């Protein structure tokens, strides 16, 4: 039976007979290579450099406030510079903030973190360190506040004062660590701690991704090559069918954008396993939440919410004055008890003002010694195991959606840069192929 074909329309067999197969397969190969390069360079854009590198232009900082919002998001622009900083380290502080809101606030209250550090063990360590320093501390204060009295006091009298203070020390220190625990919610703010540490050391955020997700990130790069190759096949069919010079550059934009978008989807979505067309799909990062919990907990416990950082925040953070005042008030009665029955006579001999000045000076100096264990790196490292166990357990228990949001927070608003980068590279690949092979391979 004879079927008339419209003039100018070729059958599939005619089309296949006329195809320049070298030109045809060169397109998927090109898109595959470009797809691999897009995802590889996309990872470079995500993580490197950790610190901004570029040049500063006079007036750009003032001009940046009137630029479109998307351009303001480019790292360095708001600071008046042109250059680049990895998207993740550039948004380290933001990730810290969202990490607290989405996860760390659910991991435990400041009181829970503090209890994990074993306040009684901290108290024992304070006494262990503080006790040998007492003679020098009291001598230093007395020499400064009332040298004549201290000089005239017989050695036995000096030893008696020091001995009475030392006797009081364990009870006083335990009352101080208890007092810190009772007020820890007002003295300690984990959100500020995390934000400030991530801002000061953005490499920490890079480590969170690299330490547990490098395998998945490498897979995303390979996926870019595979997906680019597969997308290149329909592109090749269209190019060799329509013979339009603009087709490859335009479709290159589509392929480049789609390669990055699907790469991001592959990493993060869906947060929970589900079936699509009968196939089980699950985001590469959320499927390894348990392993990620261990890595995340180790970084938080060893570098962020450490005993050393807690102590530094308590004394030198935004609420440090309140901590110092609270500790000094708690130490004051110890000095009174050390004076014992002689306190009224000492107060009369020195004068109320002088006695109170000495009492306040000893308490003030004692605050620094009280916080010494918090700055002891070895002791802090021992206590980090408790924090790590708490953070790991709670991170494993996070709802998958919250876990994904915590990991993706640093890049969500800046993903358009990755997609734009993919589109530009796809366009360049299309132009390069057009220059080498011509229109439709001709």
UniProtKB/TrEMBL annotation:
> What organism, scientifically named, is this protein from?
Nocardioides euryhalodurans
Q: Which UniProt keywords apply?
A: Membrane, Transmembrane, Transmembrane helix
The answer to whether keyword Transmembrane helix applies is: yes
Q: Is Phosphoprotein one of the keywords UniProt gives this record?
A: no
Give the residue spans that cross the bilayer: 22-47, 219-238, 244-268, 416-437
Under what name is this protein listed? DUF445 family protein
């Amino acid at each position: 039976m004879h079927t008339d074909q419209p003039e100018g329309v070729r059958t599939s067999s005619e089309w296949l007979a006329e195809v320049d197969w070298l030109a045809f397969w060169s397109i998927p190969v090109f898109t595959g290579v470009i797809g691999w390069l897009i995802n590889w360079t996309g990872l470079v854009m995500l993580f490197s450099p950790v610190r901004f590198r570029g040049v500063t232009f006079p007036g750009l900082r003032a001009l940046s406030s009137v630029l479109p919002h998307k351009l303001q998001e480019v790292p360095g622009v708001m600071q008046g510079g042109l250059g680049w900083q990895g998207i993740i380290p550039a948004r380290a502080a933001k990730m810290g903030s969202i990490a607290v809101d989405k996860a760390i606030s659910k991991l435990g209250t400041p009181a829970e973190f503090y209890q994990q550090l074993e306040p009684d063990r901290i108290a024992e360590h304070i006494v262990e360190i503080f006790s040998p320093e007492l003679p020098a501390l009291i001598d230093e204060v007395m020499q400064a506040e009332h040298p004549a009295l201290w000089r005239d006091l017989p050695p036995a009298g000096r030893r008696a004062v020091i001995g009475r203070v030392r006797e009081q020390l364990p009870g006083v220190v335990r009352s101080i660590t208890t007092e810190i625990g009772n007020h820890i919610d007002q003295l300690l703010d984990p959100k500020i701690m995390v934000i400030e540490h991530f801002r000061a050391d953005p490499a920490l955020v890079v480590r969170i991704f690299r330490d547990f997700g490098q395998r998945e990130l490498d897979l995303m790069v390979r996926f870019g090559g595979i997906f680019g190759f597969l997308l290149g096949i329909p592109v090749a069919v269209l190019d060799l069918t329509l013979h339009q010079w603009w087709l490859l550059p335009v479709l290159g934009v589509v392929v480049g954008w789609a390669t990055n978008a699907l790469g991001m989807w592959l990493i993060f979505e869906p947060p929970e396993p589900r079936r699509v067309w009968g196939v089980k799909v699950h985001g590469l990062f959320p499927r390894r939440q348990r392993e990620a919990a261990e890595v995340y907990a180790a970084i938080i416990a060893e570098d962020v919410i450490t005993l050393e950082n807690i102590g530094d925040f308590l004394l030198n953070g935004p609420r440090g004055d309140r901590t110092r005042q609270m500790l000094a008030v708690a130490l004051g009665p110890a000095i009174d008890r050390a004076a014992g029955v002689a306190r009224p006579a000492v107060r009369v001999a020195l004068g109320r003002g002088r006695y109170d000045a000495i009492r306040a000076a000893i308490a003030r100096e004692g605050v620094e010694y009280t916080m010494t264990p918090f700055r002891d790196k070895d002791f802090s490292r021992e206590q980090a195991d408790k924090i790590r166990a708490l953070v790991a357990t709670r991170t494993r228990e996070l709802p998958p959606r919250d876990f994904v949001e915590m990991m993706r927070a640093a890049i969500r608003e800046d993903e358009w840069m990755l997609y734009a980068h993919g589109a530009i590279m796809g366009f360049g690949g299309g132009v390069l192929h057009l220059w080498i092979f011509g229109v439709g391979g001709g």
